[in-house]
Amino acid sequence: MSDVKENAALSSIAASIIITLGKGGAGMATGSLALLSDAAHSLLDVVGTTMTWLAIRAASKPADDGHHYGHGKVESIAALAETAFLFLLSGAVAIEGIRRLWEEQATVLVHWSAIAVLIVSIVIDSWRFIALRRVARATNSEALAADALHFSADLVNSVLVLLAFGATAMGYPQADALVAIGVAVFIAVAGFQLARRTLDTLLDAAPKGIASDIRTIVRGVNGVVNVDDVRARRAGSDLFIDLEIGVARSMPFDRLGSLKTTIIDAIRSKFPTANVTVTATPVVLNEETVLERVILIAARRRLPVHHVTVQELAGNLSVSLDLEVDGGLSLGEAHRHATNLEAAIREELGTETEVETHIEPLVISSLVGRDVGENDKAVVETSLVRHAGQNGLISDVHNVRVRATDHGLVVNYHCRANPVLDITTVHEAVDRLERAVRLDVPDILRIVSHTEPLRPDR
Fold first, then answer.
1. Are residues 53 and 74 in the same domain?
2. Is residue 185 situated within a structural domain?
3. Nearest-angstrom CA–CA distance, 379 and 4
4. Who has greater pLDDT, 268 or 235?
5. Measuring CA to CA, which residue among 317, 287, 293, 288 is closest to residue 305?
6. Start-end of H helices in 2-111
7. Which CATH number covers residue 179?
8. Which of 123, 281, 324, 365 has the largest CB neighbor count within 10 A?
């Protein structure tokens, strides 16, 4: 992209030099102040387009340790310098035009060569204006947009000078000075517009309408609860966006990373040069239950909990739960974990909330196991089948696996139950079955069951 911008700037330099030489020679030959002022404007364009080319080269450098946001504002500085030249030029031309109006009239010679120069200038200005505007829009280049504005001003100026020549030929020599003043006003207005836009960039003014567009884009991304703040600024062709959003505080960390990527891609689909920074703030959703909030608090502290019971008592809450900690911890250390968790729950739900924590040893999740002999396995399987028959709700015990570890036996098995039963009833029936089996085989460390719906043929 930088090569396209540099080539456009170099072409503008060449065009400005050709136009300046032609207008300057014709102006000196005819004595036309309007044409000389137009030549001076074109000379300024030579300086301006050269500055633009140098600025684009500097702005294309990547960010470094001394310029974290890149060098894009070099383009804005160059455009501001061009603006200063525009104001100086317009003032000088206006003063000379007023002087000619009040003093004796200068002789203006209308010659076909001057008219030819103006026509060629109009053609070149039109070509450069269209080309520069196209590249400026495609690359979002402020400097090239300023150049396009200069060439559009040249185009208007040349047309006005042609009109001045026509009026002079018809016997109105003062038209030359009047047109020169008009050209000066036009240059000043163009300079003011360029200065305002350039200063907005240097002062980090928010580009008009962008914040609203970004809010609309981000609100359409699934997972975004709200858009808290949008800050946008330009630096050359780059657009820097700082975005603050709210997300559900229960959102997993990896999902949050994916959400940020989705947001950035959505913004860049409309603003390709955008550099987006997304900051996410966790938000408590209205639909969060007390149970979900308690589990989330424990998860953030990497404390496994289960059997969470929530009661409402005359406007207050009572929460009880089982907390699993390393079985090797001392009671004092385990109690400290429980106390900190209880304090966090009260801070979340209210200081009047009752919190009771039952501490139990964490079941070791990583064990080295080996299959037991067939006789030992048969003892466990027989116990499971017998107690399932007595239970009345559990049947078809199958796929029994028994492994020995240094901490005891780990038993895995499948069973079936009536599919219309609620899960609480099924879970209680499985618990009764497993408690009975543990009485038969005290060496069991853990029993893991997988309950399936009873098949229609059973």
1. yes
2. yes
3. 82
4. 268
5. 293
6. 2-30, 33-59, 73-102
7. 1.20.1510.10
8. 324
